[in-house]
Amino acid sequence: MAHPTTSNPKNVWAPPETFQHVAITPIFPTTKLVTLAGQVGIKSGFDDIPEKLTDQVKIAHENVHKCLQSVGASPRDIIHARHYIVQNTGNPKLDDKELPHRGWSPLWNEFLNKNADGHRPPDTVVGVASLAKKELLYEIEVWAVINAQPDS
């Protein structure tokens, strides 16, 4: 059985040495599972994080798209998404809202409408105390399945 391979797309921020953004795992000779590390609202580095949740969400979705494209996948290939949302952001107006009503959900639907022909994969929403950096408010993990030529 072939082993998973990992990579970092050149057009997505460089992660720390502990992980790479994309893993491809052969399932069958012509089917591969694509898993993405949690994508956050970072364009170039940990010093460039927008303050607004919705701005972070848009960038995270752009990063998902770039990671998928780097291995020949598209948002239409997504089979599951997991959204991590910081519960207590320090913004009382935002924190008073339930997690699904904090502005990320319409942006996810917009992303899927634009890039996945309206495909709606199963997803999970998880409220968390914090993410890797205190400025981060949103993170998304994605799994996708692609068809590929044998030994590609």
Can you walk me through this structure?
This protein has helices at 53-69, 92-95, 104-115; strands at 5-7, 22-28, 31-40, 78-86, 123-128, 138-147. With 152 residues, it is of the alpha+beta class. Strands 1-2-3-6-4-5 form a 6-stranded mixed sheet. Strand 2 and strand 3 (31-40) form a beta hairpin. It is globular. The two termini are 14 Å apart.
Give the overall silhouette. globular
Q: How many strands, what sense, and barrel or not for the largest sheet?
A: 6 strands, mixed
User: Which regions are unreliable across 5 or more consecutive residues at pLDDT < 50?
Assistant: none
Radius of gyration: 16 Å
β-sheet strand percentage: 25-35%
Helix content range: 10-25%
What would a concise description of this structure say?
The protein is of the alpha+beta class. 22% of the residues lie in helices and 30% in strands. Strands 1-2-3-6-4-5 form a six-stranded mixed beta sheet.
Descriptive key words:
152 residues, alpha+beta, six-stranded mixed sheet, 3 helices, 6 strands, 22% helix, globular
Question: SSE layout and pairings?
Answer:
Blueprint: E1 5-7, E2 22-28, E3 31-40, H1 53-69, E4 78-86, H2 92-95, H3 104-115, E5 123-128, E6 138-147
Parallel strand pairs: 4-5
Antiparallel strand pairs: 1-2, 2-3, 3-6, 4-6
Helix pairs in contact: 1-3
